[in-house]
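Hey,

The postdoc asked me to send both predictions to you directly instead of through the lab channel. I've kept everything plain text so nothing gets mangled by the mail client. Protein one:
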Amino acid sequence: EKTRLFSSLNAGEDEVAAKRNRKAPSQLQQFQRDSLVPRERRKRGTKLERLKKAQAAAQKELDGSEPDEDIASALGSSAVPTPQKSRKISVARAPVLILWVAVVVSRQRYSFCEGLSFGSWFVQILAEHTHKAVEPVKVAERVARATVLPEGGTTVKVFGMRVPVVHGSGRLGATRAIKDGDTIDPAITQKYLTQSFGGEVHLQQAKQHLEQLADAMLRWADGDTSKVDEMYYTLYEQFRPDWYGVGNKGELDLAVLKDLASKFVVCE
């Protein structure tokens, strides 16, 4: 009986010891918790720092400056490639044509805002006469001549075509294109352009390149707009975005605009 009692006690002690051993982590497990996990956290922290430096270097490249040497060396061979400046803008054809008309008109004694009104009128006419617009400028001119003008209305020749307009009595007596008896508000057109180009930054980039092209054409023509009036729409056909259906965006390639401007060389 004593033997059985001692055996039971020993068995109980062994069971308690086994439970204790199961609960308590081994030295190896404790080492992994205390050493390896923080090391992995340090690795993640290092990757985060490298990513931040890579972003800083990319931003400097976009701003036109070279990345610092210490940043470049810190990135190492595993760094992601530095993005280059985008030379293409995702946009549909209509906003590009409106902007081009406005830029051209602003070099023909009218303001840029007045040009936005003219350009919006032109695009609306083309949208209504797409099936007839084999020669869009001539179609627009025929529509302008057939337009019933309100009192004080007239037509002005810009962009190689005539546009029905009315001279307003507002600030600076601004001239506005008219369609269906109503004037076209350039403020609404400008908001449409900003949204279509994906923001003010892209809009200003496109405007700047179009201005350089228009100025190059005028220098080539020695300031005589009659020499280039018939060229504006033909030139637009060379840089306009590809057509993917109504409302779908193509790409305006700024490099193409720059290349076209370089072709209007003026020898001194």
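Protein two:
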Amino acid sequence: MASKDTIVLFDVDGTLTVPRKTAEPEMLKFLQELRKVVSVGIVGGSDLVKISEQLGENAKNEYDYMFAENGLNAFKDGELLEVQSLKSALGEDNLKRLINFILHYVADLDIPIKRGTFIEFRNGMMNVSPIGRNCSQEERDEFEKFDETAQVRSKFVSILKEKFADLKLTYSIGGQISFDVFPEGWDKTYCLRFLEEYKTIHFFGDKTYKGGNDHEIFEADRTIGHTVTSWQDTKKKVTEIFMIGK
């Protein structure tokens, strides 16, 4: 029987799956086994559609909690708890000012490859991709390597922080090709407000460094943070802590 006072939260890309790839059946089965021991929650930066593409079309019903867009689109036992709106938080004028600047910046950016969909507007955040989300997996991999040296996303974020300081926004680099933009406090720690019933909250994520989209929840006072490098590493570390399969 699952412990009623412990929940384990997981990032998606790089933690449960290879970035943007479908989860391995072995990992999905493992998560269901874990639910027999503790409560399990998913907290991803992507919207519910993308998370469901990776974890299964019925994903929101298969975990105790599903937090899409950092919890700005929150579900418990498959039932919707709350939806937050970036449009309402910023206002149309500020939103338009921000979007216009981003598109102009991308247009002037000198990088090896550009494709399409440079801004993806979600309920509670914007996802910005200098290369464009329409790129192939091979192009994603190439951009990720290029960005490690060129620091395209980090430089972009620094400029936005300076230019739009008045909007009090947070910028979070995640995945291979993009970064998220959302109001302060709307990072992954947002989901913790729905978990008051739990005494112990574990979090597993790969981008736990400062500036990564797992950093705030990894460092939060209420969580026990664990850094992982792949879904296999996640499985190994969870097994060591909770004795799954032993």
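Summary for protein two, as requested: Helices lie at 25-34, 48-55, 86-90, 92-108, 137-150, 152-163, 215-219, 231-242.

Thanks,
C.
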